[in-house]
Amino acid sequence: QRVSGAALSVRGVVKNFGGVRALDDVSLEVKPGSIHAIVGPNGSGKTTLLNMISGFYPSDAGSMKLGDSELAGRSATAVARQGVQRTFQTPKLLPGLSVLENTRFGGYARERASGAEIALGLPRATRESAALDAQAMHLLSVVGMEKRAGEEAALLPHGQQRLVEIARAMLGEPRLLLLDEPAAGLSLGELEEFGALLKEMRRLGMTIVMVEHHIELVADLADAVTVLDQGKVLAEGTPEEVFRSAAVVSAYTGA
Ligand code: ADP
């Protein structure tokens, strides 16, 4: 067995939906402590790849290793327990619960009490509860949402809900954080703050894989970029390398 030293090593992953081959022999290596962007035209397989890595869909072939452990064939819960946390294109926060309560659910990945017990501070979870509250508040301040801790999360604008999802994901102390279009719908000011947040997370040693349409953000932040087109890897390299490639420009513009 080859030792790659990669945080995440994806090899030959295939996913079919009926007659559609959404991913066709996709491989990529994500370095520890890096920000790795996945870009590509609509329908190129980006979200499907995140769904494969996070165990939301089973893959038809291939291997996905987090360090030494194989993720392929594991359920989403099992993958989360291995240390993979994710956010969604459309934030999935629990209605009726506050920003703080939603953030506490991140503790589910590493605590024995259930997510619901932790969020609601039920007896089995109360011992862990005070410490979790403090950590959740700290992470909410990292993403700039601490002033909204008591507000109902699901009623906030999408951009802010995504920041709460990131705080929730970070509370799970992930080895790998997967972000699906985290910058969608952010204002220019929010975008700048968000870029600074991702850089801070990288400085803290987190490994991040993000699907992102915002090319300027990717060019500014990403250490490496994988370009997908029609389910295949079209190009990979630094942002400068891939965005200069004629094949990539033509996949985007159809020229
Ligand atoms: P992207 O995120 O790059 O826009 P997707 O991963 O969403 O692309 O989709 C890749 C391809 O797989 C598309 O052709 C899409 O229609 C198909 N696809 C994705 N998810 C499903 C699904 N659950 N059922 C059937 N087809 C799907």
Description:
By secondary structure, the protein is α/β, with parallel strands linked by helices. It has two domains: 1-83 and 175-255, Rossmann fold (3-Layer(aba) Sandwich); 94-173, no CATH class. 38% of the residues lie in helices and 23% in strands. The protein contains ten helices and ten strands. The strands form two sheets. A six-stranded mixed beta sheet has the order 6-7-8-3-9-10, with helices on both faces. Helix 5 (123-142) packs across helix 6 (158-171). The protein is globular. The termini are far apart. The site of adenosine-5'-diphosphate has 11 residues, from strand 2 and helix 1.
Strand content: 15-25%
Q: What ranges have pLDDT less than 50 throughout 5 or more consecutive residues? A: none
Average of the residue pLDDT scores: 88
- Roughly how much helix do the residues carry, as a percent range? 25-40%
Instruction: Profile the largest sheet.
Output: 6 strands, mixed
Can you write the helix and strand succession as a string? EEEHEEHEHHHHEHEHEEHH
Q: What is the CATH superfamily classification of the largest domain?
A: P-loop containing nucleotide triphosphate hydrolases
Query: How big is the Rg?
Result: 18 Å
Which class of the largest domain in CATH terms? Alpha Beta
Instruction: Count the DSSP helices.
Output: 10
Q: Give the ligands present.
A: adenosine-5'-diphosphate
Structural class: alpha/beta
What is the number of E strands? 10
Could you please say which CATH topology of the largest domain applies here? Rossmann fold
The CATH architecture of the largest domain is 3-Layer(aba) Sandwich
